[in-house]
Amino acid sequence: MNRPETISALSIRLPQADRSLETYKLSAPKSFPDKASGPMNRIAFSAAHVVADPLADADPWLQAAIDWDKTIAYRERLWDLGLGVAEAMDTAQRGMGLDWPTSLELIRRSVGAAKARGDALVFSGAGTDHLAPEAARSIDDVIRAYEEQFAAIEAVGGRIILMASRALARVAKSPDDYVKVYDRILSQAKEPVIIHWLGDMFDPALAGYWGTSDLDAAMDTAVAIINANASKVDGVKISLLDKDKEIAMRRRLDERVRMYTGDDFNYAELIAGDEQGYSHALLGIFDAIAPAASSALVSLASGNLDAFHEALAPTVPLSRHIFRAPTRFYKTGVVFMAYLNGHQDHFTMVGGQESARSTLHFAELFRLADKAGLLRDPDLAVERMRFVLATHGVEA
């Protein structure tokens, strides 16, 4: 896993903020294994991206065209690395190009692929996104929408991540409305679910979730709902990018309920934990850094905390860059990493989201991925980076 002492002879000219070009010399990649090299003592999900079909005769802003073979192949890679798959979540552009019918087909295919491997770990997102927020008139409409998606996922043998609802955020009048909806839905779940609290930095339509814009008061409501339904809750993932809030909530959860960190800024220290506990993981960044994450988690389980941090620490600047504001565009960086590393043959995204970040953003992502040792084939990465820069008018 350690970086070799030799330095790559490769270089590329990358744009800088002052509009100049620098000659950037690459380092040698780290030798991360392609498969998990040992057991893990944390449950770790990677929310996984979808691979678009660039040759589909479809309008990308209006229709989701998926390359199903490449999309499932990427999930096979995550399973090989010992990670679970969090399916049809916001990393898969749920609500930003991926609609519910396509999401259900994705879930069906992923669950099938997982079962073919002997029940590889996969949980899938159930929300209310087929109900337009403006069409919701009451919390009963929200309940029916959740019930429809729960039933569809359970019918194909899937486990559920209960996603936050834009419609509920719009129609709820108080925290009590959230209590009514979640109590009702959780009571009907066939198996314990993971609850996802997604902050408005990821989705502005979720502002004021749990009935208030005060995060401490919102946490009171969420914890009360979760602990009252602990037998129906496998765990909770919070995506607030605030480690102190996560730790505070983790310490308040019923002992039967796991905390899955969704903090793409502070995941290393939250997974490592402290004397009072630790977080498991359900992270979008694990899609982009899967080999490093796998290696780190195996090291942690073996008691080698230094190796855990050695693998993950260089990935944190990369993650903070990919998830920089506007955070909801992080999917572009995740897919760009998959393209640079040869996991897909193009940089085309559902919804045309490849255009959501700037040329300078891609250049800095390339630098940080190299520094983290995550460009597994530097020659290929340079070739593809040059192609992307050329399409943006930069001669690299």
Oligomer state of the chains in this structure: single chain
Which percent range fits the helix content? 40-55%
Task: Please write the string of helix (H) and strand (E) elements.
Answer: EEEHEHEHEHHEHEHEHEHHHHHHH
- Cα-atom Rg, whole angstroms? 21 Å
Q: Tally the helices: what do you get?
A: 15
Low-pLDDT ranges: 1-6
- What percent of residues are in strands? 5-15%
Short description:
By secondary structure, the chain is of the alpha/beta class.
Report on this model:
The protein is an alpha/beta fold and 396 residues long. The chain contains 15 helices and ten strands. 42% of the residues lie in helices and 12% in strands. The strands form two sheets. The chain has an eight-stranded parallel barrel, surrounded by four helices. Strands 1-2 form a two-stranded antiparallel sheet.
Structural topology:
Blueprint: E1 11-15, E2 21-25, E3 44-47, H1 68-80, E4 84-87, H2 100-116, E5 122-126, H3 139-155, E6 159-162, H4 166-171, H5 175-188, E7 193-198, H6 215-228, E8 233-239, H7 243-250, E9 258-261, H8 267-272, E10 280-283, H9 285-288, H10 290-301, H11 305-312, H12 315-322, H13 330-340, H14 359-371, H15 378-391
